[in-house]
Structures are given as C-alpha cells and as structure tokens.
Amino acid sequence: MNKYLSIFMYLSLGSCLVGCALDTVADELSSEQVDATEADLSTNAVTFVTVRKDNRKCAAPSCGGYWVKDVNRSSGEQYVSGFDFGSSGFDEQLIGKVTDAPADELILRGRLGKKEAKHGTRKLLVYQAFRGLPGVKPLPGDVYFQAETRDVPIQCFTAPCPNEIAHRLNTNQQYAFSGYQVALAARPHVDQDWLVDRIQHHKAVVAALFVKGDKYPGGYEYLLDASQVYLDIADAVGPCPAYKLAACSEPDADWAYTRDVNLCLLPEVCMSTLGCPSLQPPRCEDGYSVSAWRTNSPSCIRFACDPSFVLPN
User: What confidence score (pLDDT) does residue 5 get?
Assistant: First the structure.
C-alpha cells in the first residue's frame, strides 16, 4: 500500500452543490481489496484481466498459451490456451494488434470459454482489448480504473470540484475526484493532453493511485495519477478530415496547424517561415513513431512521439 495515498470516496455520487456538506469517508485503496459481490474469472462473469505469456515447454494447447488474472483481485492466475475473438467484432487487423502486442502490455475484458474436450483446456473469450503504452510498467500496488466526467456536472461554489468519476474495475466501487496526471506513464515527447482525453472520454484503462494536488478554499484536490495507460485497441486514430487549402498569399509562407485530441491536424493560419529555426526531430523510444507539424509559434514546428500501434498503417 502506498502510504501517501488518501482519497475521499463519495458515499453518494448524485448531484450536490459543492460548498454544502458532502458525505465523505477517508479511504486507502489496496490492490488486495476485493468486492465480494463480484465473481472471479469464470465461464459466466465478464471481467478485466492482465495477461502473461506461458513459456512452459510442453505440447500445445496444454502449454504455450497465456496466464490471465483478474485485476484488483487477490485470486490466482488461470491458464488459457489462447484467445477467441468471435464476440469482439474485431477484424483481422485489430486481432493482429492484440496478438502482436507484448502480453504484459495487455488488459483484456472477457470470460472463460468452454472446456476443450480433448485436452480439458479453455480459451479466453475476448470482448474488448486494451494495450498499454510501450515500454511502460505499472507501479506495484497500483489499482486499475476506468474514468469519466460526470454526466451532470456539480455546480461548485468553491474549488476543488470533483466532477470526474473513477470506476474501480471488477468491482462496483466508484470515486469522485478532480483531475488527472499522466506524467509517470508518458515517455519523452508523448502528448499528455491526448492521453488524458483517452482516459476521460474514450474509456482507456489506467493503473493509478489517487494523490493530493493543490489546496483550494474547499480543500485539497485529488488527482488520478496514472503510471500506465491502456488504450482501447479499437479506438483507432482517424480517419482525419481532409482539407483542400488555398496557397498562402504571402511569399515564404506556409500553413500552420493545430493538433486535436484525436491526433488530427487542423489548419490554423498562414505563417511566414522566415527565421524559423532548424530543428531535429526527437529520437523516439522503441514502440513510438515521431510526428511533426508546423505550428504558429516561435519554434515553427512541433514534434510528438506517438505509440506506433495507434497510428494508421
């Protein structure tokens, strides 16, 4: 358990004006805490699991598959001989993105299939797949969440305003908080605004803890501090809008762009390229690809290292 971790879990997540007395309870989250109302990985319950490649040396399918384990639970690993994507709706390209990923970078949502008659093994029936940022390991003791903004925001008299809700995976526990931090998960030059948007609006899974942020008149804000972000494998980038742009009227001018939270470039303004510094693109780490675009700024160009698996082939 992380000793600095302390969050306020709201007993009622309904509408309330912050500034009134909220019912709260101080709670320390532990990865060993289990909600007894939820079933472990089985043929009936659909759960979120981590994945580990089975490296034992024996004949398939008894060996060579995967070990899967429910997140946020103390139950042990379950061997599966492989993955069945029949209920996922994935095409061959998406299936390849799952099977080609390092097993320890995957979070899968699924359930056990029927026993195979000959060997008595089972496959994991996959419904959703999430891939973590390449080369990033979650911190020991982190808890797995999906988060979102409240459908009906609280009207706050004083900050902080806990308008974000974290759902602890494989439980019915929910926590209200104020904002996100992803610096621990982001490799150099990774777009952190984009990562936050994937969590907030696209159901990315995070391995995270709650930490205290700044103190405001209403007390401390609490932030969901992610050490790893697992992106929905089906949440592909694009297609981005295509623009037919007129040539810039001024000599030595070119279009500058902004990049939105879907990694799409949006034309902004024609700008002079005179005096723009000559910049070398960064060397992205393995698993990332460099993106570059002209911006209306003194540097004239911006770079980012995007996870290669999210970019169009």
Answer: 41
What pLDDT sits at residue 288? Answer: 97
Vertex 44 angle, CA 39 and 45, to 5°? 40
Report yes or no: 109 and 48 within 8 Å, Cβ to Cβ.
yes
Q: Which residues, other chains included, contact 100 with Cβ-Cβ below 8 Å and sequence gap of 6+? A: none
Residues in a beta bridge with 10: 24
- pTM of the full structure: 0.86
Q: What's 261's DSSP letter? A: T
> What pLDDT does residue 237 have?
75
Q: Where are the alpha helices (DSSP H) in 105-233?
A: 192-202
Q: What is the pLDDT of residue 287?
A: 96
Return d(Cα 235, Cα 257) in angstroms, integer.
23
Element (H, E) at 159: none
Say how far apart CA 307 and CA 107 lie, in whole Å.
16
Instruction: Measure the CA–CA gap between 66 and 275, rounded to whole angstroms.
Output: 55
pLDDT of residue 120: 86
CA distance linking residue 3 with residue 46, whole number of Å: 32
Report pLDDT for 129: 98
Q: How far is residue 240 from each of residues 91, 97, 261, 304, measured CA to CA in Å?
A: 20, 21, 11, 17
Strand duo 78-80 + 265-272: pairing: unpaired
Taking the C-alpha atoms of residue 298 and residue 219, their distance in angstroms, rounded to an integer, is 39
Dist CA 56 CA 63 (whole Å): 6
| Regions of the chain short of the pLDDT cut 50 | 1-37
Q: What is the radius of gyration, based on Cα positions, of the chain?
A: 23
